[in-house]
Structures are given as structure tokens and as C-alpha cells.
Write a structure and sequence with these properties.
Elements (H helix, E strand, L loop, with lengths): L1 H11 L1 H28 L8 H13 L5 E2 L14 E2 L7 H12 L4 H25 L4 H13 L1 H6 L6 H21 L2 H15 L6 H13 L7 H25 L4
């Protein structure tokens, strides 16, 4: 019990708690980042299914062949040739981002894998922003940031050319902007949330659900003012104080 009380006292001091979380998790996160970067540097295969498709499309874009792939992986649409338009089912944005980096370096599996490592860092940073937007203290936001970065699924997708991390970045970015737009009433933030939600849809087909969710939230979510609870607490306290003051006045008033 003494340890629990001591821990609560530490967490109550936000600066101390934030420093403690940083000291505990920063070295681990740096080591994991360096390990993922090194592992991506040894990559020779982009991954199965989705990863292979996104890498092939990015490589062909970087080589100037356009948005085509050289194999048939589904039969949802008829194909007259083995080489055909790539984004006829899956979305193209992750491949476009990877291809842009390949243009600056080389069209290789290593580049595609390291782009995913960078996406995992961007996701962790956005978790911090989202947590702070949700009014979490700094130590809790930093803890959430480290927990997401060290999560096994993030590590799994951070060394392959898979769209999942790019999709997660855009979804979290759209939700963060949507919350800020709702709280502030700034239509520019709402417009930005719509654009980022569109980027999520261009990363995965189910990103359209993010656009729908934002629209429903803006129409149906009516949070109370930020100072509602504070004002209510102060009004109750003022009422009690006035009542006590009235009692004291009556007790001190001269008889007759």
C-alpha cells in the first residue's frame, strides 16, 4: 500500500511522472527503432499478398512504367493481359508514397521496408498528439506513445511494404483533427480532417468508414462546454458558502 501511495504521489506531479516514463521507455524505444531499421536494411522479400502487391506497384511507378502490375491476383474484373492496371481493387496511396521515396533513392525492398519504419515512428508521434487532444496528462500520452510503438503488430508491419501503418497514421490523424474541429468550431480543421480521411480511404478500401464516422460525429456529437463541470462545481461551492455565511450571520445577530 505504501508503494501504491508513493506511486500516486509521483503521478500527481506531472513533470516528475513524465520524466520517469521517458527514462524508462526512451532507451527501449531507441533500441527497437535501430533494430527495425537494421532489419529493414536486410530485407530481401517485401512480404506476402498485400505487401507484394504494394511493393510491385511502387517499383513499377518508380521505374516509370506507370500504375501497373505484372500478375493477376484476383478475378473481380476481367483481364486481357498479364500486365494490367494495378489499383483496380486495392488502393494506390501507400505505393505512391513508397514510389516517391524510391525515386529519390532506389527501387528496392530495403527502401520500401524502411518507409514502413518511418510510418511506425509517425504513428507513435500521432498517438502523442491524439492523447494530448483528449486531455490526457503528458506522462500518460508518452506512455501511450511508447506502448503503440513497441506493440507487436506495429513491429510486424514496420519491416514490410504493407499499407496498414500508413492507414493507421491517416485514420488517427483524421480523428485528431475531427476532435479538434468539434471542440474549437474551426471549419478549417474539419476540412483538414476530411482530406486526411480521404487519404485513409486511398490507403485501404475500408477507409471510407472513417469519412462516415467523422460526418456522423460532427452531426450527432454535442459535448457540453469545456467549463460546464467546473462552473457547476463552483456554483455548488458558492451556494454552500453563502448558506454557511447566512447561518453565521443569524447566529451573530443580537437577540430582539
Amino acid at each position: 500500500m505504501a508503494f501504491v501511495e508513493r506511486l500516486r504521489a509521483v503521478l500527481a506531479r506531472e513533470a516528475t511522472a513524465t520524466g520517469l516514463v521517458a527514462v524508462l521507455f526512451a532507451p527501449v524505444c531507441w533500441m527497437v527503432l535501430l533494430e527495425r531499421w537494421a532489419a529493414a536494411g536486410q530485407a530481401s522479400f517485401p512480404g506476402h499478398a498485400d505487401s507484394s502487391f504494394y511493393f510491385s506497384l511502387a517499383k513499377n511507378l518508380a521505374n516509370g512504367r506507370g500504375p501497373v502490375i505484372d500478375y493477376i491476383w484476383h478475378f473481380w474484373a476481367p483481364h486481357t493481359d498479364l500486365t494490367h492496371f494495378g489499383p483496380d481493387y486495392w488502393m494506390p496511396l501507400p505505393s505512391l508514397l513508397i514510389a516517391a521515396v524510391m525515386k529519390l533513392s532506389a527501387p528496392s525492398v530495403v527502401v520500401a521496408a524502411r518507409c514502413a519504419v518511418v510510418a511506425s515512428v509517425a504513428l507513435a508521434a500521432l498517438v502523442w498528439v491524439f492523447a494530448r487532444t483528449s486531455s490526457l496528462p503528458r506522462w500518460a500520452a508518452l506512455l501511450a506513445c511508447a506502448a503503440v510503438f513497441l506493440a507487436l503488430p506495429v513491429g510486424h508491419f514496420s519491416v514490410r511494404a504493407d499499407p496498414s501503418l500508413y492507414y493507421a497514421v491517416f485514420v488517427l490523424g483524421a480523428l485528431t483533427l475531427g476532435i479538434r474541429a468539434r471542440d474549437s468550431g474551426d471549419l478549417r480543421l474539419l476540412f483538414g480532417a476530411g482530406l486526411v480521411a480521404g487519404a485513409a480511404h486511398l490507403s485501404r478500401n475500408d477507409g471510407v468508414l472513417v469519412i462516415v464516422s467523422l460526418a456522423v460525429a460532427q452531426l450527432c456529437w454535442s459535448p457540453p462546454p469545456r467549463n460546464f463541470c467546473v462552473d457547476w462545481a463552483f456554483s455548488v461551492q458558492d451556494t454552500r458558502s453563502c448558506s454557511r455565511l447566512g447561518c453565521c450571520s443569524r447566529s451573530l445577530a443580537p437577540a430582539g
